[in-house]
Design goal:
four-stranded antiparallel β-sheet; globular; Methylamine Dehydrogenase, Chain H; mainly beta; eleven-stranded antiparallel β-sheet; 2 domains
């Protein structure tokens, strides 16, 4: 069971909204990640990582240093909850279910490990992002961390970025780290030297800068020199370098602020790679843009559909042309210029399959339930008719729950609501939601869940949080 709590102390009134979440299943989530001429998958059965491709610097983590055309297992790690590869130096980072972080390959271009190596100082980590510099990570408590080896500011210990306590996920693009916060905004950070008048000398502080134009964001990803963000409405936004059309806005002009990717709506998954980008839409189709066809002249600044995909659930691009796709059966293939090729499994006896795929990984016309700005959003709710509404549940200063349709019209439910084949009952101030599909990008959960929403004026609670913060215990 996980319990999420909010508090609102406006007008001197304390009210608690608790969400008790009981997992119906403990299935792992299959993952897909592309890097510098390397591909990785994480099997759902045991959370182990299997890679193939270039291995001269230990990229595959199998201790051999020998290239492989079939997947080989990264040694000594399992129960992986998140994996990330750097497209530049070609190294990987993985967060395990016990909160530890392991790395292998040409880590940050400063040390080489031919098998996974645990980074001391990390604990309770739920999300990681590998990059040229630094590596970024998110703690289960919403804290933000970076790891930069022998940089000017830290040696070989992770360093917490102060001022961020509501982090959801991270991404790294070249030397630019990004964090998605649970209010749907995206920020970058750097260390700067500022003069402290009280102390009379300069001090080094973390300076956070918000990325302009990004709101209601539910997923981010970093490429070599650009980044992508997915909004809750299914649109994709991009910023950074654009010499190869990787921003997908129809131009080849760089942009420091977020610009909308041309023509794509209903996006469900995004991937930013080495000067190319890709997305899975709610209909299971795959689209890509940037340097995905040719490294010489054939660059694409407007998304193009990759033929042959109708049931994709996840896409990942790396430094090589094209990318990797996982379908709803858990099968993994490669694509390049409309050519789809299967990947053999570890004994070369059949095609690679890493499933089963979870319900919440399968694209639909509705996004899964998500948290933003401390409120619970239930997309595509039926109120008894054919029209679907977005319902927002929020805690008011007077201690009451506010149920708003499309964030505008309030209502008092007297009948069952149906959301993605799950039923919600409102009785005596309590909402019982069966089979809620929660996005792991915001909750760290990805199972079918039974959820109980309650509100109370009782202040005797083990955990009290700001309205904008989420935690679990």
């Amino acid at each position: 069971m996980k319990v999420f709590s909010w508090k609102n102390v406006a007008s001197g009134i304390l009210a608690i909204l608790s969400i008790s979440i009981f997992s119906q299943a403990q299935a792992a989530k299959p993952l897909l990640e592309g890097g510098n001429e390397v591909g990785f998958v994480v099997r759902a059965s045991d959370g182990t990582a299997w890679g193939w491709g270039d291995n001269r610097n230990g990229e595959l983590g199998d201790s051999t240093g020998e290239d492989s055309t079939i997947p080989v297992k990264a040694m000594d790690i399992a129960d992986i909850v998140d994996i990330s590869m750097d497209d530049f130096y070609s190294w990987s980072a993985a967060a395990l279910s016990d909160g530890t972080v392991w790395v292998w390959g040409d880590v940050l271009g400063r040390m080489t490990h031919y098998m996974p190596f645990q980074i001391r100082g990390f604990s309770n980590i739920v999300d990681v992002a590998a990059g040229p510099w630094p590596m970024a990570a998110v703690g289960a408590d919403g804290s933000l961390w970076e790891y930069a080896l022998n940089s000017v500011f830290n040696d070989d210990e992770p360093r917490q970025i102060m001022g961020v306590y509501n982090a959801v996920s991270v991404a790294v693009s070249l030397n630019n780290p990004y964090v998605l916060r649970n209010d749907g905004t995206v920020w970058t950070w750097e260390q700067v030297s500022l003069y402290d008048e009280t102390l009379g000398y300069s001090v080094v502080v973390d300076q956070l800068t918000q990325i302009e134009g990004l709101t209601d964001i539910v997923q981010i990803d970093g490429g070599y020199d650009h980044a992508l963000a997915l909004r809750a409405d299914g649109t994709i936004w991009a910023w950074g370098k654009n010499g190869y059309g990787q921003l997908g806005d129809g131009s080849f002009e760089n942009s420091n602020s977020a610009t909308q990717v041309h023509g794509l709506t209903g996006a469900y998954d995004i991937s930013a790679g080495y000067r190319q980008s890709a997305a899975v839409l709610s209909d299971g189709s795959v689209w890509t843009w940037g340097r995905w066809k040719s490294s010489i002249t054939d660059f694409v600044s407007i998304p193009e559909q990759v033929g042959g995909f109708t049931n994709a659930v996840q896409v990942s691009t790396g430094r090589g042309l094209g990318g990797l796709v996982m379908d709803r059966d858990g099968d993994v293939v490669t694509y390049n210029v409309n050519t789809i090729s299967s990947i053999p499994n570890e004994d070369d006896s059949a095609s690679l399959r890493v499933g089963p795929v979870l319900e919440s990984q399968i694209p639909t016309a509705c996004r899964p339930t998500y948290f933003m700005n401390g409120n619970l959003h239930l997309p595509c709710v039926s109120l008894g008719g054919s029209t679907l509404f977005d319902v927002e549940l929020s805690l008011q200063a007077d201690g009451n729950l506010r149920f708003a349709v499309d964030a505008a019209v309030e209502f008092t439910p007297t009948t069952q609501l149906q959301q993605r084949n799950c039923m919600t009952n409102f009785t005596n101030g309590e909402a019982n939601i069966a089979c809620l599909v929660a996005m792991d990008v915001t909750l760290g959960l990805d199972n079918l869940l039974n959820v109980v929403l309650t509100h109370s004026a009782d202040s005797d609670t083990t955990t009290l949080l700001d309205l904008t913060q989420i935690t679990s215990y």
